[in-house]
Every structure is written in structure tokens, then in C-alpha cells.
Design goal:
By secondary structure, the protein is an alpha+beta fold. It is built from 24 helices and 19 strands. The strands form three sheets. Strands 8, 9, 10, 11, 12, 13, 16, 17, 18 and 19 form a ten-stranded mixed β-sheet that branches. Strands 1-2-3-4-5-7-6 form a seven-stranded mixed β-sheet, sandwiched between helices. Helix 17 (508-516) links the parallel strand 12 (496-501) and strand 13. Helix 20 (649-661) packs across helix 21 (672-698). The longest helix is centred in the last third of the chain and has 27 residues, at 672-698. It is globular.
Amino acid sequence: MEKQNLIKQTLSQPASIEYVKELLESKQIPNRAKLSEKVCEHFDFVDTRGYQQKSSCLIALGELEAVGHFILPEPTKRNDGKNFSLHRLPGPVPEPLAVPVKAGDVKGLKLVIVTTDEQKRIWNELMFCEHPRGSTLFVGRQLKYLIDSDYGWLGGIGFAASALHLAERDKWIGWDHAQRKDYLHRVIGMSRFLIRKSVNCQNLASMVLGVVMKALPNDFESKYNFRPWLVESFVDTAHFDGACYKASNWRLLGTTCGRGRQDRKMEASLSHKDIYIYPLIDNFRQRMGLNVIAGMGALGPTDGVDSDNWAENEFGGAPLGDKRLSERLVNIATAKSNTPSASIGEVLKGDKAAIKGYYRMIERPDESAFTMENVLLPHRKQTIRRMQGQRTALCIQDTSVLNYTHLEDCEGLDQITGGNQTGVVPKGLFLHSTFVTDSKGLPLGILKSRTISPVKKSKDDKRLSKDIPIEEKKTFTWIEHHRDMVEVAAAMPNARLINICDREGDFFELFDEQRRNPRVELLIRASHDRRLAPGRKLFSEIRALPVQNVISIHVPRKSARPKKSKQKASPARKERNTELEIRYMSFQIKSPKQGLLADKEPVDLWIVHAVEKNPPEGNKAIEWFLLTTIKINNTSDAEECLRWYSKRWQIEEWHRVLKSGCRIEKLANKTADRLRRAIAINLVIAWRIMLMKQMYRKTPELPAKVLFSDTEILTLKAYAKKKGYPSPDTVGAAIFIVAKFGGYLARKSDPPPGDQILWRGYTTLQIMAAGFELMLELMNDEG
């Protein structure tokens, strides 16, 4: 049974309404129950087991009565679930004896489906006497289990109908009213879960939840001839913390509003409970006919990034104070992504009205809702959903300097470096971001990005640096972003978050912050060669250890970087494959001896050292010292940390795309706030450009439709057929042709196509696709 039987739709037909009226006028129907039975018999309203669907029929009849089609008999007194006859044992259920203290040591653990009268009495007795909410009548399809073992009965679990309306659940699923009516039967509720108070067994509850979630689909199907897709449960936080649900990979959605199933007077008198849900299948949204990005569930890295709808998915619904502004933002982002390096006039193809609308949007008052944070909010939500679909998410922090010295009249810019010999004071913005990738480096999005203004120390402030609170220092931004990751991590118990920082993140306060809430791990390149003891330094200590492993890595090429102000020059580097020697050890990082941190306890850390074994002649050997809160048990753990840290260069690449591809340092606005709005749009566009390039390199086998529209694919296919290229059915084949549009020669010695080539190629594709679409329209018009 994929959908609920469409009972109301059938009964809403004129002939059906006439049949019900005739039954009511015959005076042979004493009550609603008899009416429901007759109607089910006449229209063959039965479920998959052949049982009449009396309850659903009564609901449909009541809805038709409410709109005036007929008047039903007065309802009999409702049973509120409190006054009912409960079959119980004559005495309490015997306590289990000698239960082990660890769940893994429990022998004979099994679930027993409640079927016999004796089993029903045991289950009722347990719930009545030992469950905080006692026993009650279950509604709808139900399934009950006793938890058995060699030591006696350990507890019980009961499933019944799910909540009719549940705001957080319905928002998370993403269904509308009609879809909920069709598929609500696929969601079942865990109405009772009891581990007896006398059972003191560590991790038993989470183990039982794991066992029952595996058994439930088959057991439910055996009884009702269809399988459930989702299970929901509620946790009263006044009595329980829900730890067993989190440990069993249930998802916390939010909190109830305090209304029960029978709360028809909207009293909301019940306690508020945490809502947990457990998907029994991964593709339940598609099975319901929903869009892949519907609701608030986990997304794959490429879900919703296709060229037709990506801007709506990443910017749509931004809370800018006016729905029209949100729509304009989506249109601007779509156009800008096609030619990211062009000016806004070129992007909008000289359309005066569109250009005027863009500037009117960007130049909103500085105190308006059109802020950088609000522009990025929809993308942040999508990024979090992509993170939820990962076992490990790498959250890479870094700061980049945006130079706007050329905007002499722009208000609100910061001094970004010291002055030069000409007396010009460089001004701009410091952009600090958390850029997220999966464990292989595929970009998932921007979790948080903001421009920061370091607090200028007053000339009258005579405090030494060690006496200034971290909140007043520039480095506090790193802690703020770490706290944001911790907050996000609470909503994704299945994902492991790693905060990756360069040398600027190597300061004691950040490690101390992680110690207070260890939900997010730290992986930081060491900046300070700390003293371990008199005569012993950290770097020399680990260099002296024997080599514990040797791994092969790929070193990407790097362009030469000229000297800029206080930034050192950097030579060019060719890409190469090389071998690194690995060492690792644990140690303690001590707090400063003086100042505000003097009383802090040392922090336990691990250090991983990697040094290039045989660097090419004329090249400096690669050498990393990585500090981490991740426990390094073996060389595999150390190697994993190295591979994760190697993905830190993704944020550097993103900064390069922003500056050289989207040309954000060429923006021209009158205030810093207006600059931030324009920058925010480009942040997401640069992420998508990076994703397209990374997909070509890392996941070329994905279908081309995840990045290109139908018209673009048709254009690529026509070109491929003409040139004899492979059909662009996959991302790899499609982007290869796009690169050819951009001038890619594809010689054996050529590296993979870079950003500039892909941008030129994609712009050409846009022009060709527009012409191809126009040609198709003309052909259709001509018949």
C-alpha cells in the first residue's frame, strides 16, 4: 500500500453523498460506527489485510458533514484512553536477576512480539507500574515487544499511529497537507519505551533501539502487509536526556508544542517534549514524490546544484524584509553565476531597469534587514543539510584580506596593513570564513562568513597583551566560529566535525575552548615550538622519534606569489607525487605562566609530524607539525589527520576564485555594508564554481544533469556529435566539452582545466544554449 486509500475523494462524489444520505434517512443506522461499517462494505474500503477502514471512513464522513452535505448521528462518548479495562497480571512482573553492567555482556537478549494473552498482561503490567506515563489504549496500527533475556524481562517497547500534525516533523519531511494524508501511515510512533529501573546496564537502551529498528520493518509488514518508512518518538526532558536516541543515530528535530492527539480545545496542557525521528529507508522523500531537496533532511554534496534551480535553492527565501528583494537576489545570483568576472552592467546585458533594481537592492539603508548574514542564511541551511549527509565534515577556517584602497570615498573600511613610503594607508575588509568540505575535499558550502574589524587599542590602554581578555583580540573570531560549529554539531549527531586551522589558530584559548565542549575536534598547524621541559622543545623532540610510517601524497602545483606589504613572497611549485615520513606522539600544552590564563590546567594534545623524504632538487622539503585533539591510536589515524589537513588548501583556492574569478576586490560601493552584500552573493557563486571543478576531478561519473540544464545538455550533445567527442552524459564528459569551449587543449602534458578556462567555457555554453533554445522555439512555432 504505497498511499492511503483515497476514501474522502471517493465519498465526495455526488453519487456517494446521495448514498450516505439515503442510509441516514432510512433510520436504520443507530450510530456512526454502524454507518462507517455500511459505507466501508458498500465501497470496499479495506486495508491490505482485508480489514475495513472504519476509522478513516469516519474521519472523511465528519469532514463532509462539516461542509454541510449531511448531518451524522450524535457521537457516542469518546474514550480518552484513561477509562478502559486493562488486562494485567495478579501481581508485579518479577525483577530480572544479576543483569550485567555492560550491554555487550547481556546473554539471551531478544525481542518478543506480544501476541498471547499472557504476554499482553506482562506488557500491560510493566507499563502500568513502571513507565512514567503508565499504560493507555494505542491508536491505529500497533506492534508491541517485550525485551527478554536470560535474566528475565528487561522492559518493553510499543508502536502505534504517528501524530496527526507535528510542525517540526512536517517541516523536516517537507510534505504538504495532501501528501501528509497520503503517506502518514508510513510514519509510525514509538508510544512506549521502557528499560526497567532495576536494570542498571550501560548502553542497554541504545542497543535495544538498534535491534528493534532492524526488526520493526519486517515484523510490521508481516502484520499489516506494508513497510513503514519513518519512526517518531518523544522524550520528556524533565525525566530523560535522550542520550540513547542520539547514540542510536536518531535525529533530534525540535520540541512539541504540548498538545496531545485528543487536544481538540487547543489547551496545550501537556509537557513539551523533544521530537526524535529515525528513517528506515534513505529515499523516503522520493518515494513520496517530493523534490530531492524538500524538507530539512540531509542532502548529498550535489543535490540541488543543477544550473536551472541552484540559485533558488541557495538564496531563495532570504529574510531581507521584502519578498521581492529575495526574488531579485535569486535572479541576480543566477545571472552573475553565468559570467562571474563581468561587471554588473555586463551581467545584466545592459538592461537599465534590472541594473537600477540591483543597485536599489544593494544600496538599502545600512540598518535594513539586507545584511551579509541574511543573504547567506539560505545557503547556510543548505550547507548544514549537506553536512548532515556526511560521516565526517571538514570545517576549514581562515582569514583573507580584501583590498579596497581604490575606494577613497567608501565609508566603514578598516586599515588592513601598515602604511607605505608614499603615505597611502591601505584600506579594506578582513573576511573570515568557515568553508566546509567532505573528507575527500568536495566543497559542501560556506557555514559562516563575516567581515571582522579588529578592536583598536586605545593609546590610553596600558595593559599588556597577556592581560587583555581574548574577547577584545582579533583571534577571538576563531573561537566564535568554533562555537558556531559546536552549535551546528548538536543538530547532526551522525556527523563528525573537524575544525581545521592554519598557524593563526595555534593559541591556547582555542584549545581550552574545545576542552570545554569536545563535540568538534581541532586540527591545527603548529606555529609555536613549545618548551616541554628544560632543554626539550616540541619540534626537536618529535623529529628525534623513529619514523612510524611512510605515505605517498600528491602535491598540487602553486603559482608564484610576489611580496606584498608584510606578506612574504612565495616561489612557484610544480605538482608532484612524493613520500612523507610520519611520526606522532602525545603531549601537554601548558597555559601561559602569567596573565589571565595562568591558572588554566594543561591541555592534552597529539602532534603529528610529516616531512618530505626526498624533495626534488631546488625545492624546500615539505614539513608539517599538526596539533590535534583527535586521539592518535596508530599510524592510520595519523595518516587520516594528514589527509584531512591537506584539504585546508580548498579555502585558499576559494579565496583565489573570489578574487581572480569573481573579482570581488573590483567592487565599487559607497559603504562597507553595501560591499558586504555584494561580497555575500559572490561567496556562494565562487563555492559553486569550485564544486563544478572538483566534481570534474573527483566524481566525473555523476550524471551531467546534476550541474547542467536540459537545454545545456542538448547543446553539449550536439557539439560532441559534431566533433566526435564522447556523449556528455556524465559530469566528466560534459565539463571536458565546456573546457574545450574555454580553450582547453587537452594535451597529455596539460593539467586539468582551471577556473579561467571553465568560466570562459561555461559563458560560451550559456550563449550557445540560449541560441539553441531560440532555434527550438522557432521550429515549434513553425509546426
